[in-house]
Amino acid sequence: MSEQNLTIALSKGRIFDETLPLLAAAGIEPVEDPEQSRKLIIDTNHADIRLVIVRASDVPTYVRYGAADFGIAGRDVLIENGGEGLYQPLDLQIAKCRMMVAVPQGFDYAAASQPGCRLRIATKYPDIAAEHFAAKGVHVDIIKLYGSMELAPLVGLSDAIVDLVSTGNTLKANRLEAVEHICDISSRLVVNKAALKVKHARLQPIIEAFAAAIGQ
Ligand code: AMP
């Protein structure tokens, strides 16, 4: 990583879309839309600033190892996959949602989640789920999934799911209902600690532009 160049790690979809106005506030515009392109490295209007498009859960890894100078990662990813070794200067208040427990409509969750009960939970977030149920004194068998958690209780793979809920439309479409709020989630700016020192003059104005754009 050259001293002049900046590499920014982003994931496609919600986070990318909601990051565009922040990048624009810092004068950075991607020359291509990653949804329309198969390119994993996207140039910007600055010859020395590029974006790398990675899976949301890989953003902290790219930044931690310095393959990207900074990135934007959901709090869900930072809690579950580790935010250690990363400087996290700003909660960007984007890609907001809630980490919830959800069950099939009509399932008596209050009775099934008494201390001492046992539940099967399908989730992409085994650590968050395990900690939540341990605090309630509920025994859980955690079934790790990588996507479409909503299907698991419908076909008898689990009693409940722990997943992100935004509008609630996905739950409703699958006849599920949210029964417990675990935590609020939004996305954070994560910066490589070495880059923050070596490239401080380049990074600081961008961090300040992001902060101003979100009113901080
Ligand atoms: P919704 O139907 O709007 O409640 O969205 C729920 C679906 O989108 C679930 O599959 C979630 O895992 C996913 N989801 C919602 N919000 C986010 C987010 N901020 N980041 C990543 N995935 C999300």
From TrEMBL:
One of its GO terms (biological process) is L-histidine biosynthetic process. SUPFAM superfamilies: Periplasmic binding protein-like II. InterPro entries: ATP_PRibTrfase_cat (IPR013820), ATP_PRibTrfase_CS (IPR018198), ATP_PRibTrfase_HisG (IPR001348), ATP_PRibTrfase_HisG_short (IPR024893). CDD domains: PBP2_HisGs (cd13595). Residues 55-210 form the ATP phosphoribosyltransferase catalytic domain. Its EC number is 2.4.2.17. Keywords: Amino-acid biosynthesis, ATP-binding, Cytoplasm, Glycosyltransferase, Histidine biosynthesis, Nucleotide-binding, Transferase. The keyword Zinc does not apply. The keyword Glycosyltransferase applies. One of its GO terms (cellular component) is cytoplasm. It comes from the Bacteria. Catalyzes the condensation of ATP and 5-phosphoribose 1-diphosphate to form N'-(5'-phosphoribosyl)-ATP (PR-ATP). Has a crucial role in the pathway because the rate of histidine biosynthesis seems to be controlled primarily by regulation of HisG enzymatic activity. Lacks the C-terminal regulatory region which is replaced by HisZ. Belongs to the ATP phosphoribosyltransferase family. Short subfamily. This is ATP phosphoribosyltransferase. It comes from Neisseria elongata subsp. glycolytica ATCC 29315. The gene is hisG.
